[in-house]
Amino acid sequence: MNDDTLLPVLTPRRALVESFSNPEAAVDRLEALYFEATGFLAEHFSAAVLGERPDARVRAFYPEIRLTTTSFSKSDSRLAFGHVAHPGTYSTTVTRPDLFRKYLIQQIELLMHSHGIYVQIGQSDTPIPVHFAVTGKPDVSIPQEGSLNFSLRDVFDVPDLATTNDDIVNGTRTAYADGSFPLAPFTAQRVDYSLARLSHYTATDPEHFQNHVLFTNYQFYVEEFEAYARAVLADPESGYIAFVSTGNTIITKGDEALTAPLKLPQMPTYHLKRADGQGITLVNIGVGPSNAKTATDHIAVLRPHAWLMVGHCAGLRNSQSLGDFVLAHAYLREDHVLDDDLPIWVPIPALAEIQIALEHAVADVTMLEGYELKRIMRTGTVATIDNRNWELRDHSGPVTRLSQSRAVALDMESATIAANGFRFRVPYGTLLCVSDKPLHGELKLPGMASDFYKTQVARHLQIGIRAMERLREMPLERIHSRKLRSFDETAFL
Q1: At the top level of CATH, which class does the domain 203-483 belong to?
Q2: Are 171 and 232 a contacting pair, CB within 8 Å?
Q3: pLDDT tens digit string along 420-453?
Q4: How far apart are CA 110 and CA 118, in angstroms?
Q5: In the predicted model, what is the mean pLDDT of residues 179-185?
Q6: What is the CATH topology of the domain spanning 4-198?
Q7: From its phi and psi, is residue 367 left (phi > 0), alpha (psi between -120 and 50) or beta?
Q8: Distances from the Cα of 488 to the Cαs of 172, 180, 389, 398, 420, in angstroms?
């Protein structure tokens, strides 16, 4: 019987740790180490697929960023990120430095400026799972399940869910085994896991995602988003350069044809791109808090600058009309999917920067201001539940709670998206459109629904887009404020 623990281990040559005072050079080194490691794994994986079982374990390691500071001097207190909380050694593993290049340069530069220190770039002790190393390499042939004459995990490192978790963002991990403190909110394994899931769920590559993400729960918004994208692509002054549809189909001109996919993914996703990544991504998450959590769990690793929910809801006040808007100022969480990660007693505050951007966007699109805006928009608590047919239950329970909470609208996604934004330090907001009023007997009949969608979806989407464009104009330090940061935060945004 073979004891695989006795196999020799084949690894790339161990690289020397290098110090850098230039952030671009530091990221260049991260890229070189990462591509050397993944190339090594891909080469040996291809050889193993075509030949016999290797007689050694094959292993390569993620690169890492490490820094040490010994001073208690305070950093610029205006900035909520870009500095460490106290003296010590800080580290993070890194994956896909090509994808995160601008982000890494920005974060490293802030640290160097805040503390006047060098960063060390080298290899970590964390193996790269072969699944992540070969993903996206067109020259690597992936075998069918069961076709290999050996178990993959006997030779290569595979994803380990025991170490792929949210301990850092949940605040349950404050230090690593080597005594260093987390430098970034996610480890390389956690990022790789989500990048793979994003490709699966959205059928678009992670590099297409933009810094501003709109979530919706209806396909009608997708059709309007494509129409808007075609219009702005026809305008050379718009700043938008491409529209990416499900299946990574790309158009750069407003009149180009888009090939419809044979089958839509679970969460169809579309990207209106700008050269600087400051465009808009639209994700149709469908209905339900589970989908909302899944999407935001994975998009969070891309460190977007804002995400907003623009979907439909049930209006709970008799004074509301179908088509009215609801701007969430608070959330009643009865969705339960985040209870283990974010206790229900944690408040989810409204973020002033997001609220102002949304209110002004409503005014821009509807041409109503001030007191007149109240004709079509209510602000207040949005309740999110996990039971689509809550109306069929005894009303003495849910209706009483909704009344006590002062809720003005009910849906199945908004509080989940806001709560995960709070948890992952991603600025969040919600603007819903009233599509029915079940407590008051106003349900959509087929004809009413068609008319409602034709008249309201386009306007609602335009408001979401306009809000994102307002947020894009804000300085990064203003939108990523201390409201989302805890006592002892990672330096990386």
Answers
A1: alpha beta
A2: no
A3: 999 999 999 999 999 887 665 555 555 555 566 6
A4: 12
A5: 95
A6: amp nucleosidase, domain 1 (3.30.1730)
A7: left
A8: 12, 14, 42, 38, 19
